[in-house]
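Justification of resources, computational component.

The compute hours requested in this renewal are based largely on the per-chain cost of generating structure records like the one below. Each record pairs the submitted sequence with a full structure-token output. That output is archived, and it is also reused by downstream analysis tasks.
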Amino acid sequence: MTERLPEVLNAALKCFARYGYKKTTLEEIAEELGLTKGALYSYASGKEELYQKAVASALTRWQTKVREAVEEAGSPEDMFMALSFKAFKYLAADDDLRNILINDPDIFPMFPKDDPFFEINENSRNMLRAVLEEGINSNTFRPLDLDSATWLLFSIYKMFIIDTYVVSDREATEKLFKDAVDLLLHGLFRQNRH
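The structure output for this chain reads:
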């Protein structure tokens, strides 16, 4: 049974993305897979659990792609750029997860106490924190409070994700995101102002 779990979760995600959580039925998901509704209960206790597992799987896939981009980068600055842009642009290519997020922005809430996927997002924050720490240790980034910087940057990132993929004009927000990363890396002040 477990060998089909990724296939089941992908089919469930497609159905939830297509019809929304409320309108999606277990029968539709089973039909997509060529299974019976009863067979789905081998993978989840019901529609809500299947939804949670499907979204968690998609979020983890997103996180894995970002981690791979960071691992391929060289310097801390390149790692930060890879993390920022891979994380931000991923949803442009993942139609199903993007549609889920549009229909259910609560899967990516601004406040962790309301986060149904806290552990996954905490792993993303830890990845960001590790990049910042590497930058500080190599004297690429100035010393700073890692917890505060991680919290601030992840909050800004979530704001851009929601603004870009849920409520706004994607092209305009993508430019704004690029400008924000540039501002974060290079600051407001000219390098040789004295």
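The two ends are 67 Å apart (CA to CA). The longest helix spans residues 47-72.
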